[in-house]
What we know:
Glutaredoxin; two-stranded antiparallel ribbon; seven-stranded mixed sheet; alpha+beta; about 20% strand; about 45% helix
Amino acid sequence: LRRRLAVVCAVAGAAAAGWLYLRHQKERQQRSRRLQHLRQLALGQGDFQLQDTSGAARSKADFLGRWVLLYFGFTHCPDVCPEELEKLSRAVELLERDPALPPLQPLFVTVDPERDDAAALARYLRDFHPRLLGLTGTPEQVRAAAAAFRVYVSAGPRDADGDYVVDHSVLTFLVDPDGIFRDCYSRSRTAEEVARSVRGHMDAYEPLPP
């Protein structure tokens, strides 16, 4: 009886070990597929080819390794863009109070390259966070950047003075150090809510392995 019981236990143990091995292998395969998918997202998601206010070429690759808060707008915007940039600046300031948090880069991409050249962007952004970096480019480059983030952009009719308003999506995007979208924040979110959300993503972040 003891021998039979020992055989049964051995068989059961081997079966359990085999089941655990197969389960571990399946989990590894699933994780590998997910990491591959995330790498593809990181390479193709939201890329752009623009220039900063010093004239230097900038792409998403320049910001890998840093968290990014990115907003699309234009300097002639009467109220929405200044409010959103004030909110973005405030959220960055709140996060900067904790030196243990990783670096965060705020970006402003114009949707009005005709009027927002490098000099205009530099003048405009002086009123906001000192590290807020402005990006512009050719109309084609700006359209491609907006499309990559699925931002709606439509210039309105010109008035007698040639002035016009650009209608666009009002969203602030959070991109992680691997270049993957993590979240986006609408106009209804406060600076405090944005900062809390960004901190939560930072705390939960696990970098993609090389």
